[in-house]
Amino acid sequence: MSKDLKRSLLLVAGFAVALVVLLALNRTGGDDEPSAAAPTGGGGGTPAPVVRDDSHVLSPAPDGAPVLVEFLDFECEACRAVHPGIEQLRQEYDGRVAFVARYMPGPGHFNAENAAVAVEAAALQGQYEAMYDRMFETQADWGEQQVSAADLFRTFAEELGLDLAAYDAAVADPATLERVLRDRDDGLTLGVEGTPTFFLDGAKIEPQSLDDLRAMLDAAVAG
Questions:
Q1: Closest Cα partner for 33 from 192, 143, 204?
Q2: CA-CA distance, 123 to 9, in Å (whole number)?
Q3: Mind listing the domains of the chain with CATH numbers?
């Protein structure tokens, strides 16, 4: 069996396991369940958008193409497990499906907001995806801890060649955290109960495997 085939099989298995864990958490609750507290923004009965004009698009696609949105938490182990599968699907559906990521930091994760703020600060310098990947690659080093990992995240910014003065200013700017919490509030309004949670063309979906999600994308592409 080739090395590439082995890796693909591992990605499929990891994605399936992560989704099984996610479905169990959504039914029973757990560390990845967002707070039930009222959203801090919006109101007035206006439906929350699944995608905003400034949402982070990982893979663009032409107007009218299907849009897959993932609400994620960088400290969520299920999100980390699903991440390679999502990257695989991005390659498979490049130019045919738009992939969008939105922040959903959970209250049970001490550094979830810190991580999202660091990613958003990197995004302001055009390095959203690089920092997004770095968070999942290093999650085992900083996740599930009760001390701030902000200094570590700053070293990531330095390694990525970011302007550290601008990065520090963005991290300290309340507007950066507000941007993260707006995503979270939208998620709560939309009924997100765990991470990762997916929406396809505005509808919440619950794929149970990578093949399941692939079939949903195929159907959406076919119209």
A1: 192
A2: 32
A3: 3-222 (3.40.30.10)
Distance CA 27, CA 199 (A): 18
CA distance 93 to 187: 25
Taking only the tens place, the pLDDT of each residue in 14-44 is 555 555 545 444 433 344 555 444 454 444 5
Q: 209, 12 in Cβ contact below 8 A?
A: yes
What is the Cβ-side half-sphere exposure of residue 150, based on CA atoms within 13 angstroms? 11
- Provide the residue type at 189 as one letter: T
113 phi, psi to nearest 5 deg: -70, -40
109 contacts 140 by C-beta, under 8 angstroms: no
pLDDT in tens, 151-199: 999 999 999 999 999 999 999 999 999 999 999 999 999 999 999 999 9
Burial class (CB in 10 A: 0-12, 13-18, 19+), 165: exposed
How many C-beta atoms surround the C-beta of residue 130 within 10 A? 18
Rg (CA), the chain: 17
What is the predicted pLDDT for the residue at 137? 97
User: In whole angstroms, what is the distance from residue 23 CA to residue 61 CA?
Assistant: 29
Q: Is 223 exposed, middle or buried (0-12, 13-18, 19+ CB in 10 A)?
A: exposed
- The CA-atom distances, in angstroms, between 89 and each of 32, 46, 150, 160 are 23, 32, 31, 25
Amino acid identity at 17: V
Q: Output the six-digit token pair for 58.
A: 């990982």
